[in-house]
Specification:
A hairpin with a 2-residue loop joins strand 3 and strand 4 (29-30). The protein starts with 7 loop residues before the first strand and ends with a helix. With 99 residues, it is an alpha+beta fold. Helix content is 25%, strand content 31%. It has helices spanning 66-72, 81-98; strands at residues 8-12, 19-23, 25-26, 29-30, 38-44, 54-63.
């Protein structure tokens, strides 16, 4: 199990004190079968006026293992000024809400 729970999730069974693990899935790919499962990364922009609720960070993937997802990512967003502007506004808004 990864520290950020990208390959397995801990589930607390309702009404009991029992905890069990659940395999994570990414686009019909299960993490107990392969570490190479990935999916596109989206961020929630509802806090930023003028943007749709979900924004696809082009070229960024997440999945079972962070390093596998990073190695499969093209990082295309870093070559697009609009994408960088959206990320910048998102990060500034996120830091405003956490401070």
């Amino acid at each position: 199990m990864t520290p950020i729970g990208t390959n397995y999730a801990l589930i607390l069974q309702s009404g009991t004190n029992q905890v069990y693990t659940q395999v994570q899935q990414y686009l019909n790919c299960e993490c107990d079968q392969t570490d190479e499962c990935t999916s596109e990364t989206f961020i929630d922009l509802r806090a930023i006026v003028g943007y749709p609720s979900l924004y696809n960070i082009t070229g960024f993937l997440y999945g079972c293992l962070s390093i596998e997802a990073l190695l499969q990512s093209s990082l295309q967003c870093f070559y697009n000024q609009t994408c960088i502007d959206v990320l910048n506004r998102y990060l500034l808004a996120a830091s405003y809400f956490t401070n």
